[in-house]
Amino acid sequence: MLLVDDEPRLLSSLYELLRDRDYHLVTATCGSEALAHLHRMQFDLVLLDLRLPDMSGHEIMDVINEEEFDCDVIVMSGDVGIEAAIGALKRGAYDYLRKPYSREELLKTVENALQKRRLAVDNQCIAQRLENSEKMYRYLVDSSPDIIYTLNHEGNFTFINDRAYQLLGFTRDELIGKHYSILVHDEDLERARYVFNERRVDERASRNVELRLKCKSATGGADRTFNNTLMTISLNAIGMHVPDGPESKQNKREFFGTYGVARDITDRKRAEEMISYQAYHDILTDLPNRMLFKDRLGLAVIQAKRKLTELAVMFIDLDRFKLVNDTLGHVKGDELLQQAAARLKECLRKGDTLARQGGDEFTIVLPELRDRNDAKVIAEKFLEALQKPFDLDGHVVHISASIGIAVYPTDGESIDELLRHADIAMYQVKALGKNGHSFYHNSMLDMSHQKIALEQALRRALENNELEMYYQPQVDVATGRIIGAEGLMRWNHPQRGLLSAGEFLPFAEENGLMLPLSDWMLGALCRDLLLWNQAGGDNIRLSLNLSPQYLDRGDFFEKMRGALTRYGISPAQIEVEITENICIRNPQYAIEQLNKLCQLGVSVAIDDFGTGYSSLAYLHRFPIHTIKIDQSFVKEIHDENGHYPVILAIISIARGLGLHLIAEGVETEVQARYLQANGCTTMQGYLYHRPIALTSFVGVLQAQNQAQNQGQNVPPAPPMIAVQA
Fold first, then answer.
1. Does 104 lie in the same domain as 201?
2. How many CB atoms lie within 10 A of CB 564?
3. In the β-sheet with 72-77, what is the strand arrangement from edge to edge?
4. Are both 525 and 627 inside the same structural domain?
5. Counted domains in the chain
6. Distances (CA, A) of 73 to 83, 87, 106, 530
7. What is the pTM of this model?
8. Which of 239, 296, 321, 502 could form a disulfide with 360 if both were Cys (CB 3.0 to 4.6 A apart)?
9. Which domain holds residue 255?
10. Angle of helix 556-567 versus helix 514-534 axis, rounded to 10
C-alpha cells in the first residue's frame, strides 16, 4: 500500500493508523517519489493526496492510467470544491475522502477497496481456469482419434470435431447445420435413423452400433465403417407453451439433442474380414480350403437331394510334383501349385468349386450334372491343361494328374463317403500308371481294404519276426572269390510265401513303415555279420540299401554308430548304397550325413548309377567310393564285341575318379566277358549267385575258405544251391 501526502504529520498518523493491520506500507511526500515507487514496486492500493508540491494527484492518476499500473486509488483531499472529486472519480478513483476524515471511515474504505480487489483477482483466476479448461477440452476433443459430435432435436449437426475432416474429408463448416444423413451410407440409413435420434440415457442408450459413413472422394477414398457410442443430452428446458393450448409444466425435461462418439473401425473390420477369409481359403493358391469345400459340398448335396439331380466330387493329385519340389525347392514348388491351380480354375463351369486339400491335392465339386459324361469332359480338360509345360523362372517342367471321381448318390450320399471314394478312385489311377481319370467302383474299395490289410500284416511281420535278410554275393571275376554281398530284405508271408523287397517296400515307403523296417534291418545285418565273420568272412564287405527317408531322419548316423559298437562290427566292413535321387533331395544335408559315415569308416556306393539324375558335380561333392552299373544297362549287352557307350562312359568315369566299380544283374557269360574286357572286374547277378538266405551264404563262405586253404581257385557257386528269390 502506497501512502502519498506532503504533510509529515498527516502522513505519520496515517502510517500509524494502518501499520497494525498487517499491511506492507510504503510512504512518499511528493509526486516524483510516489511515481518512483510505482515504477519500482507492485501496489494493490494507493492512498493519494491531491495537493503535492511538485504535481497534483490528478497528474499522478493520469500516469497510473497511461502506464496501466494495476492498483486502486483512494483520493484524500481537503478541497471543498466538487471539481476535485469529479476529476478523481473520472480518472478511476475507487473512492474520495474529504479531510478531515474519521478513523472508521478510512479503515472501512480501505477494507472495501481491498475486498473488491480480492474478488476481482479470484474472478480472474476462475476465468483463467475456465479458459484453460476450455482450451484443454477443445484440444482433447479435436485431438481425439474418434469423431465427436452433437445433433439438435432435428438431427442437424451443432458441433463436430476436426477428426471428421481427417477421416471423411468434410470440414466443420460443411457439416454444421446439415442433417446427419449426408454422411451415412445409403444402405445404413434405416439403422442410422434410430441411432442419431437417440433419446434414451444411461444404459439404455445405443451402444456399439456399426454404420458406414461416406467419404469425400478427393480425400477419404472408400467408405469407412464406424462404431457409434451415443448418449442423449437432457436439459431442464425453459417452459414451452403451445399457442392456444394448455400450458406446459415448468421444468419439464424436454429432448434437446444427441451427443455421439463415432470410432473408426474400418481397419479392424478389414482385419476381421481378412481373418475370416483366410480361415476358409488357402493362402498360397487363394482357393477355398478343406473347411469351405466341405461346407459347399454339403449345400450341393442338399440341393441335389431336393432336385433329385446328380453331382460329382473329384480328387486330383499332381503327378511328379514331389520330384519338382525336391529338385527345384519349395519356392518353385509353390509357384507350380499356383500355376496349376489357375489352370484348373479356368476349366470350371459357373457354380463349380475348386479347393486345395493340402500339399499337391485338389478337390472339386460339380453340381447339377446332366450325366457322368459332364464330369468326364471336365476331367479331360484338366488333364489337357496340366500337360502343357510350366515355366518356373526359366525352369520348364512337365507334370500330369491322377483324378478320381465319385458321383452322388450312386457312390455315396454323405460328404465323407464321396470324398473317400473319390480318393480311392484317384489312387487306382496312380496304381495304373498315373496321368488319367477314373470313376469310383465298389471293387476299388476291396483293393483299398487289401492295402489296409497289407499295412497291418507288415506291422505284424515286424512283431512276429517274419522278415529275413538275404544276401547276393559280389564276385571278383579275376579270382572267382566273393569279396562282398548286398543285403536284400525278404518277407516270409504266412499265406503268400516268400516276398521280395519290390513287393512290399514301395508300399512301406508310402505308408510310413520304412523307418521301423530300416531299424529292424540295421539290427538284423549286424547280427548276421557276426555269423559271417565266424565263418571266415571278416574280409567281405556288406552293402546295405539306405532309404532316403531313413537318411533324412536326424538320428540315422547315431543309430548306425550305436549298432556297430554294440555288435563289435568294424565300420570298414560296411558300405551304404544310396540312389542318385538322394543327392538332389537335400544335397547339403545328405553330404553332411554321408561325411559323418565316412569319418566313422563306412564307405558309400551309388546304386543304379546312370538311371537317375547323374551329375559329375555330385560325384565330386559327395564322398563316393563305389559306382554300381545298373542292370538295365547290363541287359543291353548281347555281343561281347559290340559297342555300348553308356557302360563304357560309366567305366571311364569310375576309372578317372578312382572309384570302385560293380556291375549288377550279370546273367550271361557274354555280359561278363564284355564287362571284364573293358575294365569292370566285380560283378553280381544270377550268373554267379542268386540272393540266398544267411545259412546258405555262410555255407558258400565256408566252401570258399576251404578251397582257399587247399590252394584251389574258387568256382562260382551253381544256381542249384541258391534259395529261390
1. no
2. 20
3. 26-28, 2-4, 45-49, 72-77, 95-98
4. yes
5. 4
6. 17, 13, 13, 126
7. 0.47
8. 321
9. 144-237+251-271
10. 30
